[in-house]
Amino acid sequence: MSNFNKGGFVYILASKPNGTLYVGVTNDIVRRIREHRQGEGSEFVEEYDVTRLVHLERFDDIEQAIRREKQLKPWKREWKLDLIRENNPTWDDLYEEACRTYGRKRGTTGGPFAS
User: Fold this and answer.
1) Which domain holds residue 90?
2) How far is Cα 115 from Cα 13, in angstroms, rounded to an integer?
3) 8-14 and 21-26 as β-strands: parallel, antiparallel, unpaired?
4) Range 21-45 average pLDDT
5) Domain-embedded: residue 49
6) CA 77, CA 19: separation in Å to the nearest integer?
7) Burial degree of 31 (CB within 10 A; 0-12, 13-18, 19+)
8) Exposed end of the chain (fewer CB within 10 Å): N or C?
9) Cα-atom radius of gyration of the chain, to the nearest Å?
């Protein structure tokens, strides 16, 4: 089964509240955020220390996730900040919650990050 038949995630990382932002897409959120934190896979993330997971959207289809990422990337910064504030007003790091929700039950839907 190819990755294109699996679900996906769109995520926003921040360096700090109201700091530098990074929008990404993946089929494995736990692995991808761990890679970012280890400085793998994105020079931008490593250079600007953008490792706080502040927004997450889950999709049943990776193609939907890719479309959403392409929609969010060109958004004005203020729109992205509004999206984060609407869903995570205290700018909590959502990584541990994502690990609990998606770490072992990969491929399941639902939970706090369901789209």
Assistant:
1) 3-102
2) 18
3) antiparallel
4) 94
5) yes
6) 10
7) middle
8) N
9) 13
